[in-house]
Amino acid sequence: MKVLVLNCGSSSLKYQLFDMENEHVLAKGLVERIGLPGAVLTHRPGSEKYVIETEIPNHQKAIELVLQALVSNKHGVLKSLDEISAVGHRVVHGGEDFSGSVLITDAVIDALRRNIELAPLHNPPNIMGIEACQNLMPNVPQAGVFDTAFHQTMPPQAYLYGIPYEYYQKYKIRKYGFHGTSHKYVSQRAAAMLKRPIEEVKIITCHLGNGASIAAVDRGKSIDTSMGFTPLEGLMMGTRSGDLDPAIVSFLMEKEKWTTEETSNFLNKRCGVLGLSGVSSDFRDIENAADQGHERAQLALERFAYMVKKYIGSYAAVLNGVDAIVFTAGLGENSALMRVKICEGLDYLGVKLDLDKNYTRGIEADVSADDAKTRVFVIPTNEELMIARDTYEICRDLK
């Protein structure tokens, strides 16, 4: 069974085609600048790369080009589109409607539309991708895999805010959490590396990249996570402020005479390590500047590590212990320095790094000292494979 995985952004589309018999990636690629001048499709069947530049006015045209590339005589990997048995979509926000991945139906699409106000930038292109596939492949079943679904197991004391309950009932204002597919994948891999059933272990997963979040995973279920009603809450990130005193928002709006839109843009795009360091939103640039003695870059790194450490400590308390801490995503997988900064002072949890083992990038590894009580793992995330697996389970008996 072959599963096509799609991740539709507002002006981009990432895809991977899996053969689920061995979970092998047959092809993958990226469509950029949808609806803009200079649109391009980069298609990779194996190690080769093919670049197609053409007008791509919308997501349906983008998906049409992807399907043509997959069956192309020159660089295709399929004889016919009939070989695609199912399509899996990454969907950012399922609200409270979905606690797991689902088969796409008209009712599901209606629910996604209702949740647009919770993810106005992400859900519309996700819906466009689903509808484009319905038009182009009307007989192929589709599944929706939600960033928020994994965190729907959080208890009310974890997801409710200290505001009148009526606003939760009226507007569904609560913590939702994001990066759920990543947290789910790496927690399952961590349990496998511990050689224990996931139902027996307590894991803290750290998805650290330009967007960053941490999750407390108790026996396979998320019981808390750092992102909240939106991805703005939690850790300071590349350009997002993360946790701050809410009064700062109204204070700045009054002082700077900002509109709500300007304030949202400030908190989401001008803060984080970019704002604190004044260097970049890219942690690689900040690490390089810090190495050259840039004080604000050093401060930004210390602040970020400090926040991650605080969340690890609080989640260890919530879990009543921890068996493993996982680092994943761009920064978590590739920065030995950041892992050292975060793990310093966590010896009370049984954390002890092997500095030689820790000097690794982008590969699955146990970087703990042999005598460490709590294991520290580096696990490259694979959200596309997680989406393909969920889609396979949902759709395998339908066609």
TrEMBL record:
<keyword id="KW-0067">ATP-binding</keyword>
<feature type="binding site">
    <location>
        <begin position="330"/>
        <end position="334"/>
    </location>
    <ligand>
        <name>ATP</name>
    </ligand>
</feature>
<comment type="similarity">
    <text>Belongs to the acetokinase family.</text>
</comment>
<keyword id="KW-0547">Nucleotide-binding</keyword>
<dbReference type="Pfam" id="PF00871">
    <property type="entry name" value="Acetate_kinase"/>
</dbReference>
<feature type="site" description="Transition state stabilizer">
    <location>
        <position position="179"/>
    </location>
</feature>
<dbReference type="InterPro" id="IPR043129">
    <property type="entry name" value="ATPase_NBD"/>
</dbReference>
<dbReference type="GO" id="GO:0005524">
    <property type="term" value="F:ATP binding"/>
</dbReference>
<dbReference type="InterPro" id="IPR023865">
    <property type="entry name" value="Aliphatic_acid_kinase_CS"/>
</dbReference>
<dbReference type="GO" id="GO:0006083">
    <property type="term" value="P:acetate metabolic process"/>
</dbReference>
<feature type="binding site">
    <location>
        <position position="383"/>
    </location>
    <ligand>
        <name>Mg(2+)</name>
    </ligand>
</feature>
<comment type="pathway">
    <text>Metabolic intermediate biosynthesis; acetyl-CoA biosynthesis; acetyl-CoA from acetate: step 1/2.</text>
</comment>
<keyword id="KW-0808">Transferase</keyword>
<feature type="binding site">
    <location>
        <begin position="207"/>
        <end position="211"/>
    </location>
    <ligand>
        <name>ATP</name>
    </ligand>
</feature>
<keyword id="KW-0479">Metal-binding</keyword>
<dbReference type="InterPro" id="IPR000890">
    <property type="entry name" value="Aliphatic_acid_kin_short-chain"/>
</dbReference>
<feature type="binding site">
    <location>
        <begin position="282"/>
        <end position="284"/>
    </location>
    <ligand>
        <name>ATP</name>
    </ligand>
</feature>
<dbReference type="GO" id="GO:0005737">
    <property type="term" value="C:cytoplasm"/>
</dbReference>
<feature type="site" description="Transition state stabilizer">
    <location>
        <position position="240"/>
    </location>
</feature>
<comment type="subunit">
    <text>Homodimer.</text>
</comment>
<protein>
    <recommendedName>
        <fullName>Acetate kinase</fullName>
        <ecNumber>2.7.2.1</ecNumber>
    </recommendedName>
</protein>
<feature type="binding site">
    <location>
        <position position="7"/>
    </location>
    <ligand>
        <name>Mg(2+)</name>
    </ligand>
</feature>
<keyword id="KW-0460">Magnesium</keyword>
<keyword id="KW-0963">Cytoplasm</keyword>
<dbReference type="GO" id="GO:0000287">
    <property type="term" value="F:magnesium ion binding"/>
</dbReference>
<dbReference type="InterPro" id="IPR004372">
    <property type="entry name" value="Ac/propionate_kinase"/>
</dbReference>
<feature type="binding site">
    <location>
        <position position="14"/>
    </location>
    <ligand>
        <name>ATP</name>
    </ligand>
</feature>
<comment type="function">
    <text>Catalyzes the formation of acetyl phosphate from acetate and ATP. Can also catalyze the reverse reaction.</text>
</comment>
<keyword id="KW-0418">Kinase</keyword>
<feature type="binding site">
    <location>
        <position position="90"/>
    </location>
    <ligand>
        <name>substrate</name>
    </ligand>
</feature>
<dbReference type="GO" id="GO:0008776">
    <property type="term" value="F:acetate kinase activity"/>
</dbReference>
<dbReference type="GO" id="GO:0006085">
    <property type="term" value="P:acetyl-CoA biosynthetic process"/>
</dbReference>
<feature type="active site" description="Proton donor/acceptor">
    <location>
        <position position="147"/>
    </location>
</feature>
